[in-house]
Amino acid sequence: MPLSEHEQRMLEEIESALYAEDPKFASSVTRRRLGRSPGRRRVQAAVVFVVGLVLLVVGPIIGLTVGGFPIVSLVGFLVMFAAALLALWGGTPGKGSHDSAGHSSGGKTARAAAPKRKFTERMEERFNRRFEQE
Q1: Which of 46, 49, 56, 95 shows a CA-CA span of 20 to 30 A to 9?
Q2: Are 105 and 18 in contact (CB under 8 A)?
Q3: The domain containing residue 119 runs over which residues?
Q4: pLDDT score recorded for residue 49
Q5: Taking the CB of residue 95, how many other CB atoms lie within 10 A of it?
Q6: Is there a contact between 19 and 29 (Cβ–Cβ < 8 Å)?
Q7: 101 — phi, psi (to 5°)?
Q8: Considering its fold, how many domains does the chain have in total?
Q9: What are the start-end ranges of the H helices in the chain?
Q10: Span 107-134, pLDDT tens digits
């Protein structure tokens, strides 16, 4: 079930507040998301995976062994494993990435000069302002 516009706005405000409160934590959480890599990265990972699969299958045919173990197959398996990790984790956001509000995650905003308030207090204040406007 998709979120309503009001819920999406609230979620975006929570996200921007998280970036404002603790940008270091927010960027570390953003980097660790699984399964959210861009499509181009997934295509690259699929191609690398196929190359690893070919190496895995061709290894015994070539017959290059060390101690009776096909080295080419081992390399193929490691390439496949790396491709799977690449597909899952994708790329990390570059420095100077922007949050949903359009502010750079490392820069200071006009709000930074305001006295620090608790996150819950600010959210409650915004919630009350919305209902006063309607």
Answers
A1: 95
A2: no
A3: 5-133
A4: 94
A5: 9
A6: no
A7: -85, -5
A8: 1
A9: 5-21, 23-31, 39-62, 71-89, 119-133
A10: 444 455 456 678 888 888 888 888 777 6
Residues above pLDDT 90, as percent of the chain = 19
Joined together, the tokens standing for residue 83 give 């491709």
For tokens 């359009």, name the residue.
102
Identify whether the C-beta of residue 43 lies closer than 8 Å to the C-beta of residue 89. no
The two three-digit tokens of residue 114, written as one number? 């305001």
What's the full length of the chain, in residues?
134
Q: What integer best gives the mean pLDDT of the chain?
A: 75
Cβ atoms within 10 Å, residue 2: 6
Q: Which of 21, 33, 14, 3 is nearest to 100 (CA)?
A: 14
pLDDT at 95 over 50: no
